[in-house]
Amino acid sequence: MSSAVSEILIVGAGYAGSVVARELADAGKRVRVIDKRPHIAGNAFDELDAHGVLVHRYGPHIFHTNAERIWEWLSRFTQWREYEHRVRGVVDGREYPFPINRDTLNALYGLDLDEAGAAAFFERVREPREPVRTSEDVVLNSVGRDLYEKFFLHYTRKQWGLDPSELKAGVAARIPVRTNTDDRYFTDTFQAMPKLGYTKMFEAILDHPNIRVELDVDFEDVRRRGTFAHTVYTGPIDAYFHHCHGRLPYRSLRFAHEHLPDVAEYQSVGTVNYPNDHAYTRITEFKHLTGQQHAGTSIVREYPQAEGDPYYPIPRTENELLFKRYEAMSADERDVTFVGRLAQYRYYNMDQVVGAALAAVRRLLD
Ligand SMILES: Cc1cc2nc3c(=O)[nH]c(=O)nc-3n(C[C@H](O)[C@H](O)[C@H](O)COP(=O)(O)OP(=O)(O)OC[C@H]3O[C@@H](n4cnc5c(N)ncnc54)[C@H](O)[C@@H]3O)c2cc1C
């Protein structure tokens, strides 16, 4: 019996892979984690840029959850910095609170609405839709055409390369509309950033004598050689099956990072959305997220694109049907567990993927 046989292989050192690895290691299993990238932490990877500012290489990651169990699990590996994310949307050259709230309405239309007035305003402008199937339906149904065109239509076209009418309702349903003046992007009970960053938190998660991490290693090279007691696969499910039913579509992004040496603060909040102007969707200034003090500042612009690393599963019915075909094949792979955003072709936030990984480990250990 080769030594590898008693080892569990984990493909991917992002949330899904790292959480599974730690739980298995704590349960006494020996684990080998590989990632084809040269670093751990998956898309949550952060690092000091050339100017010493902590940045998120793959775009801004803000932790938020209502699940105390997940908060506590991660809190074993990091301390936190309290942080509530705020976003502004630029329309006709002016910044407005986003998600849309009462202040957005008052500033945009020169009104002085109170909470009941804002509710009445939405009721008057909304275009009731029944049934609500697409993202267009969701937004028109709640805020009507003008706000839809100002804040959602063009942003969605840029972000997804699709019209909101071509996307499932769930995409827009994630963005609330408020009659109060709450301008926080998230309203979860727990909202915070790992005090020393995500990568440090992942280092702590993976710091266990039963865990061996190998970077710059592609699963394709390992699967040819190794025999493992079990494999936990967190990469794209279609790639696992060599795209035998065709490629699952993913939306990709190009991240244009920039350092501004003599600018202490570039923008008033963490993220500013540009729904209607520019090829990029948004600019994030990292110092807001991390609280870092620095004479200069670092920002990132996000340019959505069709080609490149797979970031977002595209929520359309035909894609879900294609995923189902791969999922059916995965059920026959008795020695492999598929978990994570790419393996489950699902829009998971960080807390959700931790939850999915903990559930997968429970099933595996049972
Ligand atoms: C731009 C952007 C912003 C986001 N912002 C937030 C946010 O603010 N809040 C939030 O909660 N969530 C956010 N998310 C979601 C978050 O990134 C995911 O929930 C999380 O990364 C999912 O973890 P994962 O382990 O499933 O996948 P990943 O982080 O993608 O990890 C998978 C890993 O598998 C590796 N891999 C793939 N194939 C192979 C192979 N063949 N061989 C070896 N290794 C392989 C990859 O290199 C990768 O490191 C954001 C995502 C993006 C793209």
Automatic annotation (TrEMBL):
Molecular functions per Gene Ontology: flavin adenine dinucleotide binding; UDP-galactopyranose mutase activity
Keyword annotations from UniProtKB, A to Z: FAD, Flavoprotein, Isomerase
Coiled coil: none
Cofactor requirements of the protein: FAD
GO cellular component, one term: cytosol
EC top class named in words: isomerase
Top-level taxon in the UniProt lineage: Bacteria
Domain annotation UDP-galactopyranose mutase C-terminal: ranges: 150-347
E.C. number: 5.4.99.9
Family: Belongs to the UDP-galactopyranose/dTDP-fucopyranose mutase family.
Protein name: UDP-galactopyranose mutase
The encoding gene: glf
